TrEMBL record:
Pfam family, one: OmpA
This protein's name: OmpA family protein
Species classification: Bacteria, Pseudomonadati, Pseudomonadota, Alphaproteobacteria, Rhodobacterales
CDD domains: OmpA_C-like
Keyword Membrane: yes
Gene3D superfamilies: OmpA-like domain
């Protein structure tokens, strides 16, 4: 019995190590959700589970990644509609903070690519700001291609030249969260009626015949 329990435990550990989150792309809810300082802060404030849940929801409901032309931080016609979807989602959750990670392919030096990745992330943040989103809720970070390539190649690769937007936490002391009601934010639904034109009031005219 002890031997079977030992092998069962070992099997579970193996599956955990190989499951989702192992070497996971930035942009989905990571296994440890960020660096140690942020992780500890989220745990102590009771936000971690809610932050991860909201990060997963963002990744499922909107395209979190856009790509760039070679050696460029310019937003193009393909990326704007995707960023608009991200911006609409972000505006629906004013209590939430976001990070934008800029990536490059593996062409060029690490220092140049880090600068290019940051310029790409800042371009996305600037677009969000132009859509009325406060910069206080946004952070631009660089992660150059050598550290997080989607495709392992030394050649130019568009899929590696990207930004990824993700949920990073909640706005400190936001009025909607003073009572710790993070779950209410997670389960909030889009208000579709607010996006639709209000139906015009129909005026019913009754005509009376002269008698």
């Amino acid at each position: 019995m002890r031997i079977s329990k030992f092998f069962l435990g070992a099997s579970l550990l193996t599956l955990t190590a190989c499951g989702p989150g192992f070497n996971q792309e930035v942009g989905g809810p990571p296994a440890d959700f960020g660096n140690a300082t942020m992780n500890n802060t989220l745990i102590q404030s009771g936000q971690k589970d809610y932050t991860i849940a909201l990060a997963g929801r963002f990744a499922r409901e909107v395209p979190s990644t856009i790509t760039f032309a070679f050696d460029s931080a310019q937003l193009d016609a393909r990326s704007i509609p995707l960023l608009r979807q991200q911006a609409d989602w972000i505006k629906t959750f004013p209590e939430v903070r976001f990070r934008v990670y800029g990536h490059t392919d593996l062409v060029g030096t690490s220092s140049y690519n880090k600068s290019l990745g940051l310029r790409r992330a800042k371009a996305v943040v600037a677009y969000f700001a132009s859509q009325g989103i406060s910069r206080d809720r946004l952070e631009a970070l660089a992660s150059f291609g050598e550290t997080r390539p989607l495709v392992q190649t030394a050649a130019p690769e568009e899929r590696n030249r990207r930004t990824v937007t993700e949920v990073s936490g909640f706005v400190k002391n936001h009025p909607a969260l003073l009572n710790g009601k993070y779950a209410a934010v997670i389960h909030r639904e889009y208000i579709e009626l607010a996006k639709r034109p209000h139906p015009s009031n129909q005026v019913i005219v009754t005509q009376t015949n002269p008698g």
